[in-house]
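Wait, mind explaining this?

_____
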Amino acid sequence: QVQLVESGGGLVQPGGSLRLTCAASGSTDGITVMGWYRQNPGKQRELVALMMNSGTANYADSLKGRFIISRDNAKNTVWLQMNNLKAEDTAVYYCRAIVASPPGVYWGQGTQVTVSS
């Protein structure tokens, strides 16, 4: 089992920045991918960014250039730096980890990000 705890969400004005943190604990040796998703009520959860153990990162096309994912494999931690935030970035942001063996997908509890003036 892997436990994921997110932090860093909050209220920010348009144009501002936030940095989210996700720390993994438990059986972390098998983690291969860590990443971020977001969701608004009534909508599907969507990919924000993810990073492989190798350091390869994938981003939602619409977020490239504004959001940056980083990861410390030794600390089992992933960050999401969000810049030039817009109202449409408002959502609950979830951390996700994929474990290869035994195979599993784990989610954090989510952290609310609200972009509003």
The mean pLDDT is 96.
